[in-house]
Amino acid sequence: MTETDAQCRARLPGAVDDLAMRLGVKPGFSRADVTLTQKGRMKRSLESQSWMAFIATQTISTRVCAFDWRAKFGPFGVIAARDAPVEGEGCLDIAVFGLIPIARTAHTPALVRGELMRYLAELAWAPAAILFNTALRWRVDGADTLAVSAGAGATTSEVILNLDAAGRIAGGYAPDRPRSATAPILPTPWRGRFSDYRLHKGVWLPFAGEVAWEIDGKAVTYWEGRIERWD
Question: Distance between CA atoms of 154 and 178, rounded to whole angstroms?
Answer without folding.
Answer: 12
